[in-house]
Amino acid sequence: MAKFKEQYGDIFSLRLGPRIVVLNGCKLIKEAFVQHGENFVDRSSLPSITDINQNNGLVFSNGYMWKQQRRFALMTLKNFGVGKRSLESSIQVECKWLNEAMGNEQGQPFDPQFTVNNAVSNIICCLVFGDRFEYGDSHFQNLLRLINEVIYLHGSIWARIYNVFPLIMRRLPGPHQKIFSHSEMLINFVKLKIKEHRGDRDPSAPRDYIDCFLSKRACPGEQLARMELFLFFTSLLQRFTFSPPPGVEPSLDFRMGMTLCPKSYKLCATSR
User: Fold this and answer.
1) Which family is it part of (predicted)?
2) Do 18 and 53 fall within a single domain?
3) Which of 150, 151, 155, 196 has the most Cβ atoms closer than 10 angstroms to its Cβ?
4) How many whole angstroms separate alpha carbon 251 and alpha carbon 191?
């Protein structure tokens, strides 16, 4: 790349499968990603990732889908305490379990990677699944190993070749295929959690992120409308008794439009 810079300058493009634009120098990179950050906010579309998530989700999606997912995630996680002191107590509880797990090693050499990963993952799991996993949970430890291996494989030469020649590499065996088999196991785990939530959730009392995601889409003005209905009808019914005019039967006829509206009618409001 240094030789290309000397020959072509600070900005040049290559074709390694998809077209790649190369920026050189801290000043130029800062100008692109800080001063013009809105123009570079999208994630690159890598076949090794899009073949898994189909451009869905929060991390590697772009455009309208990403904006909607991000807005929902920020709002929901904020409601569950992210960015507030209320989440601090949950993290402190997990700190206690982490200290206890390391104390159980009694000063002997051990690999802290999965213990720390388990602790950090438990905070996320509490927000998303509404539950934590014990450090001795072999199934969850295996899932953490799968995640670590997928992350490693995404940075390997096999994934790079896959991203350059996806049509060929999809059909060839090799370590890159573990990216998809491991990811499928992780996705199946999440699907199982979603299925469990569908069976026992209370729509009026969401416990976690999944419960909120499964709830029906709420109208942005629903809370305002509920308040208006309650206050208007309460104040009117406290003061008046409503009845149809003498000899007129109430009608349920309606006019069809963007909403279902009653036809014009008259009523009598008698003071209480």
Assistant:
1) Belongs to the cytochrome P450 family.
2) no
3) 150
4) 48
